[in-house]
Design a protein that fits this description.
The protein contains three helices and eleven strands; from the N terminus they run βββββαββββαββα. It is mainly beta. It has one domain: OB fold (Dihydrolipoamide Acetyltransferase, E2P).
Amino acid sequence: MTALLTFTVAQQICGVPALGVRDVLGAQAITRIPLAPPEVAGSLNLRGRIVTAIDLRRRLGLPARGPGAAAMNVVVEWSGELYSLLVDAVGEVVALPASGCVPNPPTLDPAWREAGRGVHRQAEGLLLVLDVERLLAIG
């Protein structure tokens, strides 16, 4: 069984391994970082630690959130640093059998295919399992 924290990005259900999630936060004040890549929304302060915020909509080539739509923060750790993945809404932690994960469909957009580990078929549609390391490999 694999435990995944689920969330949505532009109405697509996604998940990341729950053991890698450090925090889930509501909307936060984000400070812009000059000359950062477009998918880097900025940084935020989490209990005295600087956290780089990555806008998954931009990272995955999707349109920006509508005006007034606040992003949720899924804080993950990678290479000893904290990163916030800006998502539209956070779901729940689900336990899925590892055998139920199938490879990404060949018709999946290249940005999503690059960031995904595979998909789980569910009643609501496909749950795309994202690879945090690939998501954070910017540039």
